[in-house]
Amino acid sequence: MVTPIWMQASVMAWVQHLLDSYVHWTGADLLARDGTVTEQTKRLFDAPFVLVSHGTEVDPMLNYGNKVALALWEMTWEQFVRTPSSQTAEPVNQSERADLLRTVAERGYFDRYRGIRISATGRRFLVEEARVWNVIDAEGQRIGQAAAFSHWTMLP
Q1: Quick one: which of 24, 88, 94, 153 has the most CB atoms within 10 Å?
Q2: Per-residue confidence at 91, pLDDT binned at 50, 70, 90?
């Protein structure tokens, strides 16, 4: 039997970093933190908004996408976590994306981001009102970046 994504130990640990970091930067919870870690991880995977994150590599690799994110980017979990984060934006939009990530790295958090992204099959969509934040560990060291949003429009 295959272990669901949200029950993998590494995913559960990462989700706690995502949720703890969100509270650190915003002072609010991204979702209800009641229940077990497993329940929180499943709730986030099934949440009605997009949540994505990447690590701190030179060309950061995506390392988390909830169910809505996987559907929007038209990828399986296995495809998603083998994708450089930069490939979620068209080449023409990558410098704007890099500027945003530098700003977040410096400030810790950015609210109301708006930009165009592209799925694995080439479908373009406009992201609106995204929240982007640094993912930090218990010592406050940056271990990644994440974004959450509920508003997007498919483009022709």
Answers
A1: 88
A2: confident
Contacts within 8 Å (CB) and 24+ apart, 36-41: 37/12, 38/6, 38/7, 38/12, 40/15, 40/16, 41/6, 41/7, 41/11, 41/12, 41/15
What is the domain extent for residue 35? 5-154
Contacts of 33 (CB under 8 A, 6+ apart): 19, 40
Of 14, 9, 94, 106, nearest in space to 51 by CA: 14
CATH number for the domain spanning 66: value is 3.30.450.20
Give me the phi and psi of 26, to 5 degrees please.
-110, -20
Whose tokens are 């640094």? That residue is 134
Q: What is the DSSP letter of 84?
A: B
4 pLDDT exceeds 80? yes
pLDDT tens digits, one per residue of 40-72: 999 999 999 999 999 999 999 999 999 999 999
